[in-house]
Amino acid sequence: MKRTGLILIVLLLVSCISNKNTVRIKEFHPLWDTVRVLSNPGKGWYHHLLDNGISKYKIRNDSIFFSFPGMDHLYLRLAWSYLEPEEGIFNWQVIDTIIDKYVPLGYGISFRITSKETGKFPGSVNQEVAGVQYATPFWVVKAGAGGSVAERNGTKSWVPDWDDPVYLKKLDAFHKAFAERYDGKPWLRYVDIGSIGEWGEGHTSFSTKVPPSVEEVKANMDIFLKHYKKSQLVCTDDLIYYGKNEEDVKSILSYALGNGISLRDDSPLVDWYVQNYPDTWSVSHPWFYDPLYLSSPVVFELQHYGTVKKDGNWLGPDGSDTIPRFRKSGARIMRRAIETMHATYIGYHGYAEEWLADNPVLTKELANLCGYWYFPVTITYPKKLLTGLNTIEMEWINKGVAPAYNSFAIIFRFTSATDGQVFDVVVEDSGNRNWLPGKIQKERYDIELPSALKKGEYFMKFKLMEINNDVKNEVKVGLKESLIDGDGFALIGKITLLLASGCRKPAETGLWQIFESSIENRKIYSNPFADVSLNVIYTRPDGSKIEFPGFYAGNSLWKIRLMPDQAGRWKYRAVFSDKSKRMRGSFMCNESDVPGMVTLYEDNPIWFGYTSGKPLLLRSFQVGDRFFADTSNFITGEVWSDIHRSRFLNWLQANRYNMISAASHYLNRNSEGRGKGWNTPDLWDENAQLPVPAEYEKMEKVLNELAARKIIVFPFSGFLGRNADYPSDPVKRELYLTYTISRLASYWNVVFNTGGPEPTLPHSPYLSREEIIQTGMAIKELNKNNHLITVHTPTGDSEFRDEPWLDFITLQGPKTTNRKELYEGLLRNHTKKKGLYAQETLWPGNKYHPAYTNSDIRKNTIVATMAAAMINFADMNGDSSSGFSGSLDTEKANDEIHKIYNNTLDFFESVDYYKMSPMNEIADNGYCLALPGKEYLVYLEEGGMVNLEVEQGEYKVTWVNASNPKEIIDGGLTTDGKGFTSPRHGVDWFLRLVK
Q: Which of 94, 115, 542, 982 qualifies as a cystine partner to 989, CB 3.0-4.6 A?
């Protein structure tokens, strides 16, 4: 019997090995179609329907227009006087007729409402008085607006004074009404700031020739920023640079881009620009568009097509013949101008029928080239998928000239080869916003296949989709049409689906990384957050157990999540508290490159370390409220995106930082100049009084990137943040804390902050001492993984230093250049069992701090570290949301101070700082760290003499130049630690004694 049992075990093992899953890699390149036009959302051609007059460029033949490849929207440019002929009396029908006809057919609309035109009534303007043409309504003039009459080619036109208070007041009232009617409509692509200059282009070349001032430009921009909160604003490049010096150009450009205003160029292939800007393809200011295009759509407008032809700048079919005087073709100039600008929307500025007849091939080419143009490169997937969690990897390339500005979902469809059963898996974010032009980007998609699916063979397909509230648009990719089915899905191949049982290979994760699995429960609960719990017992490889709750993830889906602390095979058993459903499984935990969860250094807990036993010298940097946001600021227009965050994090790592202190995290500091307007995760629904799973997912997406980059996060706002949404009711607060910790506890790189900033600020408290203590104790109780817990405190000593739930002290201050005062203030708050985080102690440029010199920065960093305090550094220019720390624009970083800070910390990492403790009592000068009988380190800020009380023995003596640690001077040997004098050159020195 024993022998038979052995044979059976061997057969089972062989069976499992023979069924070992392998992956398929499919190459898409042979299946690409680079000719078929992909009409996709948020990009494409536009048609000037109203331009230089309301009859200009009318569509003569709808059937031809409807067949125009890649036509996205109609651009309506018309004079203000058409829409408000009398004050407060609006003639919306002029544009509503067009909207009502074309929007239902799938076309979008964009607007430019002008205050100055060069043509005549009727047509270009709607009013003529005493031979003067009025694009701005004449009633504005009668109301007292200042302006002048300019004449060109016998035509007189009224030109407003662009900052006249009456003009601005009436313009403001008009755009208030216009925005109330049209702002935020799903079909509205953008609104041009068209209230200055000829045709709204921002220049006065055909009237006064007086350039609008910086103040005039900003005053007009402010009106649009005030009223259009939901729509993209665009201005012409002329508005930025016409008649301006370099300083003014930078000022206006910075103001525009900082407020989320994008740009357009209306001059490509204008003959003068072709002559004068040949190397940049008639684009006068190419630097305007890079890096703008990374965050906002750029608009290209061709010179009037008829004029281009008349000038001799468009020759041959599709403009492909060479222009003799320029030695390049018109089509090539246009193509390269679009590439130079990274344009998303492109216009030919003429009659659709004429353009399309002349340029049938080029029209299709440029329809694809503008904006984004996606191609799958490869897909890697298991030949045999299992019910439960599966991983698919895809490589993508963007062959367009710009990114997309919305996130697209990727949908995987599984169709049974036997009975046609269809099941879709939606991954809400395909990662497409990171697919920059010309770069291959790899994405990993974790997909969950429900256990209810039947095993067997399935056809696996995919497609991209824009899913935005009620709007759903298919996003086509550059594959042969024969691969695309009637629902827009592209075939990947045939897979075999197996049920998750028997010899299934367990899921895998890394040590200190995240294991996660899902369980579907379709039972209806009135409140799934509170009516039921998902209880999970995990069994470690050594047989010990840990209990940790799962959490509700929305849409009948629950998740379990764990950070494993042992390598080997883990098992788990999950059951709902009402016994409605249960599951069990296992996973393999492999060694990883994560050194462990951030904690206190076990052998000397005044320092920080990892659970692996390694020390951790924190290099922390304060980052502003925008960091966790996923879009630009919807109030101020300040530009921000995932791309900007990644660019900042690249800088952070290059400068050797390993930690950030993030404002508006976990919660948004919803106040002016702080978190207001930033779309950071809003974890708690104030109205429903419930957590919002989708908002947690937004936060976790960023935390995942930080964990992958080995960056630790201090949440400046914490669980209960100032000016933030969090529950006040004790029962709801317990629910919120439990839910949040169940999701965050599996991140090795997070610490817990009870609340901040400054919850007990004397003149403005928002939490009582008792509330903080109760919350801290509640967090401690829920804190199964023993994450470090702290609380942010006002300037001065911490009143929570000795609280049993507090693992490290977070200080604001001392803010001083007096090193003795700094050292003593830090030491006063130390204990022998807790770390010290000097969170707001050295913030150069902050208005509440002294003016630190570079020498102060270096010396303060040294003295704080000698006090065993970890400094959270900053780079500001005003309050804590200012400067580089606020903007996170790497161009604004003060590289010198970051170099000083990190070079100083490099010295401490070269010695065994973590073994020593502050012991100033054994030195009669300077600041001292010591491990008595082993090692001593003294910092002499002004050099000089020092005597140490050392334990018996012989020590090697070295001097290290504190301003240049590479300079090391042998000081011989000592047995008594007496009579040391620093070298005569230099200023400040380290004395080091090692046994």
A: 982
The beta strand positions in 671-724, using DSSP E, are 684-685, 690-691, 712-715, 720-721
pLDDT tens, position by position, 338-389: 999 999 999 999 999 999 999 999 999 999 999 999 999 999 999 899 888 8
90-104, 441-455, 933-947: which range is least confident on average? 441-455
User: 631: Cβ–Cβ under 8 A, 6 or more apart, which residues?
Assistant: 640, 641, 679
Of 352, 336, 350, 341, the closest CA to residue 302 belongs to 350
Regarding beta strands 71-79 and 108-114, do their DSSP bridges make them parallel or antiparallel, or are they unpaired? parallel
Distances (CA, A) of 185 to 83, 114, 191, 232, 296: 19, 21, 11, 11, 18
Sign of CA dihedral 119, 124, 125, 129: positive
CATH of domain 507-590: 2.60.40.10
Contacts of 238 (CB under 8 A, 6+ apart): 197, 201, 202, 203, 266, 267
Note whether 20-37+373-498 and 507-590 share their fold. yes
Quick one: three-class SS letters along 884-952? HHHHCCHHHCCHHHHHHHHHHHHHHHCCCHHHCEECHHHECCCEEEEECCCEEEEEECCCCEECECCCC
Residue 500: the pLDDT is 65
DSSP alpha helices (H): ranges in 588-692?
A: 642-654
Tokens at residue 421, please?
């059963």
Which of 17-31, 322-336, 669-683 has maximum average pLDDT? 322-336
Q: Between vectors from CA 121 to CA 118 and to CA 122, what angle results, nearest 5°?
A: 125
User: Could you tell me which residues are beta bridge partners of residue 948?
Assistant: 923
pLDDT (tens digit, 9 = 90+) per residue, 812-844?
989 999 999 999 999 999 988 999 999 999 999
Instruction: Give Cα 510 to chain centroid, integer Å.
Output: 26
User: Model confidence over 635-662: pLDDT tens digits?
Assistant: 888 889 988 999 999 999 999 999 999 9
pTM over 0.90: no
Q: Which of 51, 114, 43, 119 is nearest to 81 (CA)?
A: 114
Instruction: State which CATH number among 3.20.20.70, 2.60.40.770, 3.90.70.10, 3.40.720.10 fits the domain covering 20-37+373-498.
Output: 2.60.40.770
Look at residues 426, 464, 467 and name the one whose alpha carbon lies nearest to residue 446.
Answer: 426
C-alpha Rg value of the chain to the nearest Å: 33
Ramachandran quadrant class, 184 (left: phi over 0; alpha: psi -120 to 50; beta: rest): left
Cβ neighbours of residue 11 closer than 8 Å, sequence gap 6 or more: none
Strands (E), 738-879: 752-753, 755-756, 789-790, 808-811, 835-842, 870-873
Question: Measured at the alpha carbon of residue 820, what is the angle toward residues 816 and 821, in degrees to the nearest 5?
Answer: 45
Strand pairing of 927-931 and 507-510? unpaired
Burial of 603 (0-12, 13-18, 19+ CB in 10 A): exposed
- Beta pairing, strands 343-347 & 298-301: parallel
Question: Where along the chain do its domains lie?
Answer: 20-37+373-498, 50-266, 267-370, 507-590, 618-913, 919-994
Give me the helix-helix angle, 642-654 and 693-708, nearest 10°.
30
Beta bridge partners of 494: 459
Q: In this structure, which amino acid lies at residue 313?
A: N
pLDDT tens-digit series, residues 245-284? 999 999 999 999 889 999 999 999 999 999 999 999 999 9
Question: Cα separation of 96 and 779, whole Å?
Answer: 57
Distance (Å) of CA 666 to CA 130, 514, 620, 737, 768: 64, 19, 17, 12, 20
Nearby residues of 899 by Cβ (< 8 Å), 6 or more positions away: 655
> Residue 382: in which H helix or E strand, if any?
strand 374-382
Architecture of domain 618-913: Alpha-Beta Barrel (3.20)
